[in-house]
From TrEMBL:
Solcar repeat start and end residues: 12-103, 113-199, 208-295
Pfam families xrefs: Mito_carr (PF00153)
TM regions (residue ranges): 14-35
Keyword Endoplasmic reticulum: no
UniProt keyword terms in alphabetical order: Membrane, Mitochondrion, Mitochondrion inner membrane, Repeat, Transmembrane, Transmembrane helix, Transport
Protein name: Mitochondrial 2-oxodicarboxylate carrier protein
Its membrane topology: Multi-pass membrane protein
An individual GO BP term: mitochondrial ATP transmembrane transport
Any one GO molecular function term: ATP:ADP antiporter activity
GO cellular component, one term: mitochondrial inner membrane
Principal location: mitochondrion
Family from the record: Belongs to the mitochondrial carrier (TC 2.A.29) family.
Length: 301
């Protein structure tokens, strides 16, 4: 008879981690995507007093204005690129984290993870994840920007026009800033999850396990968001710039430029919708990943 402890201790092959991460990612994005649109709109607000652009004052104000002026469907504009990439993106996040955890434990000759190793494996997983998603992120950003509403008819049209007008390598604009964004978020996320799980009461039921995972993932997502938002702001600016002479190129100089021109607070534009998404979203990710992984361990291996 297979005990619950034996199920939990079964090693899960890379492919299963990959699939579980993909299911977790798609689940999170279907629930939380409108907040990502709001986050992008806030991050692209620059010098509105001089341009006459529409100003958003809060998350609810932005949601209301988008629905009123552009229609409900606009809250999901640009969702296809992240849906296409979300499965491999989140799959890479969790599967790479598991693989790097194993590599680091073997390298240091230890049997259990520590918080420093959890942070290191998360950073490595984030950098790996970033390499796979840059083109999808760029297309998503272009579609989410209100100014591009008449420029691109949809995902495929945006992809074709970007390649035609800016060249194929334009799809990798913002690669360096994307690596920074994901490495920092994943390091904070997995490092905090390790610590919070150790502080929470040991679960005695399935419901308590779900609650612990949601709390740990939610706190991890919040901390990761707090740490990586400045990199997310400059990544959005870099990827939305289709001009020949670009104002923003590299992450750290771009952070300096934004802080000097708009004030340090500008580096946290879009933080509220971002944390509202990735705080609970981090909990959803961990809960779904853990549940799918447990089901796979029980029934498939």
């Amino acid at each position: 008879m297979t005990t619950a402890a034996a199920v939990d201790n079964k090693p899960l092959p890379f492919l299963y981690h990959f699939v579980a991460g993909g299911i977790a990612g798609v689940s999170e994005i279907l629930v939380m995507y409108p907040l990502d649109v709001v986050k992008t709109r806030f991050q692209l607000q620059v010098n509105l007093g001089n341009t006459g652009g529409e100003k958003y004052t809060s998350v609810m104000d932005c949601l209301r204005k988008i629905v009123k002026n552009e229609g409900v469907s606009r809250l999901y504009r640009g969702i296809l690129p992240p849906i296409f990439v979300e499965a491999p993106k989140r799959a890479i996040k969790f599967s790479a984290n598991e693989q790097y955890s194993t590599i680091l434990k073997n390298f240091y000759g230890v049997n259990k993870m520590s918080q420093p190793l959890s942070i290191a494996s998360g950073v490595c997983a984030g950098a790996t994840e970033a390499l796979a998603i840059v083109p999808f992120e760029l297309v998503k950003i272009r579609l989410q920007d209100k100014e591009s509403a008449g420029k691109y008819r949809g995902t495929l049209d945006a992809l074709v026009k970007i390649i035609k007008n800016e060249g194929p390598m334009a799809l990798y604009n913002g690669l360096e800033s994307t690596i920074w964004r994901h490495a920092v978020w994943n390091g904070g996320y997995f490092g905090v999850i390790f610590n919070v799980r150790g502080l929470l009461p040991k679960p005695t039921s399935k419901q308590q396990t779900l609650l612990n995972n949601f709390i740990a993932g939610g706190i991890g997502g919040t901390v990761g968001t707090l740490l990586n938002t400045p990199f997310d702001v400059v990544k959005t600016r870099i990827q939305n710039d289709s001009g020949v002479v670009k104002k923003y190129n590299w992450a750290l100089p771009a952070i300096k430029t934004v802080a000097m021109e708009e004030g340090p607070g500008a580096l946290y534009k879009g933080f509220v919708p971002k944390v509202l998404r990735l705080g609970p979203g981090g909990g959803i990710l961990l809960v779904v990943f853990d549940q799918v992984s447990t089901w796979m361990k029980k029934y498939l291996i």
